[in-house]
Specification:
single chain; Immunoglobulin-like; 8-stranded mixed β-sheet; 12% helix; globular
Length: 318
Amino acid sequence: MTTQRIFLALILFLLTISCSSSDGSEGSKFVAVMENDSQVELVEAFVQQPNMEVVELPRQVYAGDSFRAVVSSDGGLLGSIKIFDRSTPLLLIANDLLSSQVAVPIEQQSGVVMMELSITGINWRVTEVIAVKILERPVKVDRIYRTQEMIRIATDGTSYAEEADLRRQQAKTYSAHRYTSEFMQIPVVGEVSTFFGDMRAYENGPPSNSHSGVDFAAPKGTRVSASAGGYVIYSATMPVRGTSVVIDHGSGVFSGYHHLSKVYSPVGAWINAGEYIGEVGSTGFSTGPHLHWEVLVYGTPTDPVKWLESGLSLNDLH
């Protein structure tokens, strides 16, 4: 067979994949072409049926938690999950397996929400809608008496807006590598002073906002390590969180280390789990030396405790 005939055969093979039978069903096709009175026959080109099967997906989850969705699809190339008025990608993690990390916003009300899973292959797309129950998260109120610097930050009219813009920029892009750590590590030796989701009340005022991470009280200068491997995407000072390091772990998963007194790691550096990245401080909106540790999924804060090994007690480690 000449090079030209091989090329024509390839063209026809691709065309069979993009076509359907007259009754709308998809299946095996047989194609023949006449060239110079010679017939080039292509063996049957099999067109895969659209399919999707949910492999891993919780049917109920607490507000502020994150979960992993895994679907199987023979021939699926890419996909997405739509929930909480946002879309996150389903990434190919193995042959016929796609996965995504999904964050439930801490402010999400309890009740049933609908999640749309979509998978796209060659010339096909399949969608399934699944109900997920959101459970109310139990929280306590943490009353804080602010320093003059904290009051200045809260009332200057620009710090929170600038920080929100920085946070959006940090979550705007994420690295192509896949998050593979089974568990994260606790980043510092210290006592937990505030848990994720606890409400903050300032002086004698009412509770106003939920805590976006876990606070570890520790002496200034205590070394802080990366909770998982990844690339440093931020290593500078933020208006509210103070001197900070943010690490991109892949698959839309980020961790943040805030109120530091010193940073070791420059932007772009690859950091291994457990490698030291800075020292505890009290910079930014802070009452005293501590580490504010965050774990985010596509920019949404989630409970860092749920990323640790099951049964591990934070307060057992101080």
